[in-house]
Amino acid sequence: MTQREEGPDVGRLERRLGKCMYELATESRLVRAGLKDTSEMSAIIERYADLYEPEVVRFAEQAYRSAADTDACERRRRLYLALLDFAMERPIAALRDALAERLLRRFVEVDGESINYYALQPRIAKEPDADKRDRLFDALGHAQAEANPARQEILATTLSELCRFGYPDYVGYCSEVKQLDYNRFAENLRPLDQLTSETYFRSYGALVERTTGRQWPGLRQCHGWYVSSLSQHDAAFTPDRLIESAWATLRDLGIDPDALTNIHIDAEDRDKKNPRASCYDADAPREVHLLVRPRGGWSDYSSFFHELGHALHFGLTSPRLPFAYRRLAVSNGLTETYAYLFQSLVRNDGWMTDYLGIAPDIAQEVGRQAWLLDLALLRRYLGKIKYELQLYQDPLNANRNSSAYVSILGQITGFSYPAEAYMDDVDPWLYVADYLRAWFGEAQLNGYLTSHYGNRWYKDPQAGRLLRELWRSGVKMDAEAMLSELGCRPFDIGPLAQRYEGL
Ligand SMILES: [Zn+2]
After folding, report:
1. How far is the CA of 62 from the centre of ligand 1 (A)?
2. pLDDT 10s digits, 246-270
3. Average pLDDT in the chain
């Protein structure tokens, strides 16, 4: 029935777009899993060139603007924007592939050891010797500086593509696509800095000084990465319990992990596999992939549970939803909210005691430290959004932007940030705001679950039923619409700020 209403062309475009997205997700997954050496995303985008010829994009736009009802209008709007995104991505994808390829081959020498560019940050995060961290960080800075001209070319090409399609303003384009007023959003965030500042500089500062043996603020950012790995508690988070503890949690929520045959788990240990867990929504809910390389340690658990949240959301989406509501999210704030919710279990002392057998007093201290890390990351993101909104006011002005990066991030985090990272530390299309929306979203959703099902909501099948119900609607709603349905006030900073009180 839907096909008939949409007309044959819109249906055909959706099917072809779905195939293209499937191939891109598969390509990216194979590279990350260590099953393929080079990424050829641009070749796939070229193969589907018929999808985003100017007249096809125009047709999709007309179909959206002339849609008879609001629901069809919304679905066609998403289709149009996805095709537009591909059209703009075409010249950029080749540049991105070339840079990724170069960095894959870029090795630095530190103390006689040869380390790949992509392995540097995880390596620094696990390096107990502070002086060595500094040397590794210097090497990373050199490699980042070398890559900056290529990153500038990618940004310049993006800006000219935006202009070509009638969007001269980067932030304005993101606003239209993700339906968010970024300046108002940033304004609303402003009190969070003040509200969390004292706890941050007192308690997180003490954690940094104790873990690194150095004075803070003013330490270089690389030492913060080491603190974030929470390595001092690694022994309590063994690799063999990682997947088992997740499956036990799902069973307690009334979700049978063995029935989730559409969520493919790749837990194999391969040399070239990226150690950080990841999730690929190849074709939700029919095919979802969860990649993990269990190494143990708190940060391994934290990233695995984050990706598990994504996998459950995509894997338990209703197959009966129209394509746009299964595959074409307006923003990623919603799926990140579910990812943050599951990640928060690894900061929950009750959960650590129940599933990992950690003694309650130790679990409480691990939880406290883990929440301080979350606060540190939140403050970094408050700095990032402020910086990125400034960046796009004069995007190609390298001197201005690198010094804004160092000063804004330095001030809010207390760490000394390297100027060379001012391009590398930016995710495209203001994804920084999607994460921040999830910070709000998770604090509210977690608060809702706790008030309805208690502190141990993760053991209540009724909480599981509610989550399944939410996941069924795929990406139809954004995080704020989902929260409104639960009676929460979107963008309310209260529940988030309360999180960190008394730490
Ligand atoms: Zn995520």
Report:
1. 33
2. 999 999 999 999 999 999 999 999 8
3. 95
**pLDDT classification of 104: cutoffs 50, 70, 90:** confident
Contacts of 487 (CB under 8 A, 6+ apart): 448
Domains of the chain (ranges, CATH numbers): 1-105 (1.20.58), 182-499 (1.10.1370.30)
Please tell me the distance between residue 214's alpha carbon and the centre of ligand 1 in angstroms.
Answer: 32
What are the structure tokens assigned to 157, written together? Answer: 């090409």
How far is Cα 319 from Cα 309, in angstroms, rounded to an integer?
18
* Structure tokens given for 164: 């070509």
Mapped onto helix, strand or coil, the DSSP state of residue 289 is strand
Q: Which residues pair with 270 in a beta bridge?
A: none
Contact predicate 295/239, CB 8 Å: yes
| Interval between CA 4 and ligand 1 midpoint (Å) | 36
Cα(195) to ligand 1 centroid in Å equals 26
Residue among 175, 395, 220 nearest 404 (CA) = 395
- pTM surpassing 0.85? yes
Q: With contact defined as beta carbons under 8 Å apart, do 389 and 183 qualify?
A: yes
Query: What is the 309 CA–ligand 1 centroid distance (Å)?
Result: 8
Nearest to 237 by CA among 147, 301, 280: 301
Residue 131 CA, ligand 1 centroid: distance in Å: 32
**Residue 279 CA to ligand 1 centre (angstroms):** 8
Task: Work out the percent of the chain whose per-residue pLDDT is above 70.
Answer: 98
- Which residues, in sequence order, are bridge partners of residue 113? 110
CA–centroid distance, 478 to ligand 1, in Å, is 15
For 115, the enclosing helix (H) or strand (E) is strand 113-116
User: Ligand 1 centroid vs 127 CA: distance in angstroms?
Assistant: 25
